[in-house]
C-alpha cells in the first residue's frame, strides 16, 4: 500500500535523484517517509537498525541519512559516530529523527556528529525541504573540500607565486605570478616597503613577526595575510617561507611561495552565510534564530527581562504557490518578508524558519499586553494589499505566541509551543494571533495519534461506505446514490468525514483513501441501475493525469464512465481556474460527469459557472432548508435552477427534509432531490432493503418515500 503523496517543489534541481537512507525500526515510519521522498524524485534505501545502516553507508554511499535515535541492535547515536569514522561516508549529512520535547536526544545527536535533526511528529509537507537544504549544504561543503585539495596540489606541484628576500640588498624578488596577484607593475627588485604598503594594516604586524621568526628559528613557517594591490582587488595570500643559508651556514635570504586562497575564503564566507541566513529573503534562518533565542534565554536567566517567540504564517503564500511560477512565488515571499520586517523594533529578530513559515523573537518585554501589541502590529501590516509586480494581494496572518519563561525555558520548547499556538490561530477566520495554552500539547498528541490510526485504518479495512439515494423529481424514482466515507475507528465508533477528512488531505493519505472509495463504490453499484456520485478532494483533483488514472480504474472494475459523477467544490476551481477547466474538459471527453458541490457557500461566480464544463450543480442545503421561511433563499434557488437549465446543467437540491420543500423544488423545475427527508446515508445492505420497500404510495404518478432515520 502507498502513503502520503506530495507535489514536487520547483527549484529542487541539483538534489533530485539523490539517494536517501532511511533508518528506523518502525516499518510504518519508514514507508511514510519513503512515499514523501520518492514523490520528490529521491531514491530511497532502508535500514531498521544502526548496525545495518553503518554497513549500507560503507557499501552504498548514500547522499544523506535520515535516522531515528532510538533503535534496537545499535542506536542512532552510535551509528552516527560509526558513519563519521568511515572513510567513504564520513562527510555524509545525517539528520536525526527526534521527538519535539527530547532535548537530551538533540544534544547527544549533535555530539555524535549529526548534521541536523527532524522533529517528530514529522511535518510531511516540509520534510523534503529539510532534506533538500541538507543536500545543498553538503554539496557546498564537498565543493569547498575539493577546492581546498586542488589548491593544495597546485601549490605543492607548481609552486606558483615564488618570492625571495635578500638580506644584503633588502630587495624582494617576486615571480610574475606573484606580481600579478599583488597588482604590481615593477618587473623585480621591490623593497620591503613596496610590499608592506600593499598589506592590510591589521596584517602588517603579523607579516613582520613572520619574517622575524623565520630569521630567528631558521625553520619553515606559514602566515596568511590580506593584500590590497593598487590595480587589483583585495586578495587573501597564504605565505610559506624558509631560510636560505650561505656557504658559511649563515642566513642570507628568506624564500618561499605565495598561494592565493581568496576563493576558498569567499567560499567559506558564503557557506557560513548560508548556514545562518536564508538565501532568498536574507533573513536569519532557523539555525541563527535558535542561537539568538538561546542567547535571550541566557540573558533572562542572568536577570534580564522576559521575551516572546512568535510563530508566523501568511496564507497568501500557500494560496498563490499553485497558480504562479516559481520566480513569481519567490518575489511574493520576499515581499511578505519585507512587509513583516517593516513593523519590527530594532532589537527584534525576524527569521524564515522554512518554506512559508516565519518566526519572531521579541525581547525585553514587560508582559502579555506588550507582546499582544507586537502581534497585532504584524497583523495590521497586512490590512492593506501587498503590491507584487502588477498584482495587489490580500493575505491573512496567523501568529502563535509563546512567552519565556511561563511557556517554556528551552529553545525547542518555545518553538514547539509557539507553533502549537499558531495552529490554533489558523482555526479562526481571517488574521488572528493566539497565546500558547497548556492544552495545545495534548491536542498535538491527539492529532499525531489520529494520523497513525488513519494509516492503520486504511491497512486494516476500518473504512466503510454509506450511500444516500438521489430522487428524480419528475418520475419519483431513485436515479442514483452518493457514496459517503465513514471510519469505524476502534474504541470510538463510527466517525463522520468532518472528523478526519482534513487530516487525510494534509498527510496525503487522501490519495489512497480516495482510490479505495472509487473502487469500492463502483464495484458495489456496478450491478444496480443507478448512477454513482463520489466526492473528490483538491489533492486528488489536481493530481497529474487524473482522467487517465480514473479510466484505468473503471476499466479494471468494468464500470461505465457515464455512470460516474465526481463532486468537486468551488474552492478547487478558485485556486487554479485554468488548470481546473482543462481537467474538467479532459474528464468530460472521457464521459465522466462532474458536479459542483455546495453551490452558494463559496466564491460563486456566474462568469466562472458559464466557463465550467459541468453536468450537475448541487445547491447547498442551507438554501434548501430555508425555502419555506425565506423568500430570499427561495428566489436564489429558483433563479439558480432557471440559470442552470439555460446552461444545460442539471440541478440537485441537497438537504431536503420534508414533502413541502420537495413539492416546492418540483414546482421550480429542480431535477433531483437528496436529503434526510428522503433517506439518510445507508450501508449497502440497508440501502437495498430500503429501495425494495420505500415506495408506499402513489399520487398523480408521484412516489412518496418513507424516510429512514
From TrEMBL:
PROSITE patterns, per the entry: EAL, GGDEF, PAC, RESPONSE_REGULATORY
Residue span, Response regulatory domain: 19-135
Record-given protein name: Diguanylate cyclase (GGDEF)-like protein
PANTHER family in UniProt: BIOFILM ARCHITECTURE MAINTENANCE PROTEIN MBAA, DIGUANYLATE CYCLASE DGCP
CDD domains in UniProt: EAL (cd01948), GGDEF (cd01949), PAS (cd00130)
Record-annotated GGDEF domain positions: 305-438
Alphabetized UniProt keyword annotations: Phosphoprotein
Superkingdom field: Bacteria
4-aspartylphosphate modified-residue sites: 68
Record-linked Pfam families: EAL, GGDEF, Response_reg
Tagged with keyword Cell membrane: no
Domain EAL: 447-695
Annotated ranges, domain PAC: 221-273
GO BP: phosphorelay signal transduction system
Source organism: Sphaerotilus montanus
